Amino acid sequence: MDAVDAGLTALAKTIDGDAALSRALKSPLHKSEEKAAVLAQLGEKLKLTELARRFVGVAALNRRAGDIQGMAKAFAEKAARHRGSSRVVARVAKDITKEQTLDLESAVSKALGRTVTVEVEVDPALLGGLQLKIGSKLVDASIRTKLNNLTNLMKGA
After folding, report:
1. Could you tell me whether strands 129-134 and 86-92 are parallel, antiparallel, or unpaired per DSSP bridges?
2. Alpha-carbon span 114 to 130, nearest angstrom
3. What is the DSSP letter of 29?
4. Blockwise average pLDDT, block size 10, the chain, 157 residues
5. Would the pTM count as exceeding 0.90?
6. Among 40, 55, 76, where does a domain finish?
7. Hey, is 1 helix, strand or coil?
């Protein structure tokens, strides 16, 4: 399960990092077989497990190649739950170090009273601070939100 999770996560990050590939996988102009062939080559390059490669191939052949990133995230959440852990998404204004990520994992784990795995996403629009998405809850401590709240307060005065 861990190998499939790691492989699908790596594949999703690769697709997210290449805008042209992402558009091509979502485009109805390309045949499902072509998308499956591209994903098969990418799977070999990333050394995906056989199960993950077959899953991605079937998804592509069933016209779901554009949904692979979402499928990878859903699988990561289920795998984390299976391991007895929760997945938390931390959105930050600029990339943080591995040490900072581990410190954040430790702090959130302590606050929630259970083991968590933090996935970091960079969103420069936040300006600073961070947003934590824990399941369906959002903890927003971003500067952008604070500025928006201040602006709304000033409009009301």
Report:
1. antiparallel
2. 21
3. T
4. 91 92 92 94 93 94 93 88 85 93 93 88 90 90 91 85
5. no
6. 76
7. coil
